[in-house]
Give the backbone structure.
Amino acid sequence: MVVAREKTRRLNVVINESLIEWASSTAENRGMTVSAFVRHALEVECRRSQDEAIAQAVDVLAPLYAEGTELTAFSALDADDFA
């Protein structure tokens, strides 16, 4: 999703004819321009990639939290309202 007033730039991409035809027909079926469809596909992939990176970090860090009590020592305070 493009945010209002977000700076955009033009990008030229070289792809094979079958991908162009697929993107054109898919965009048309969705009521989008090819540019909007490609932009949406890139945004979806960007989010998926970020989610994957977070999941990998969780996998790496989870054992540290399971083994090290110093990492979770103050988690009981997270729910406290100090106001």
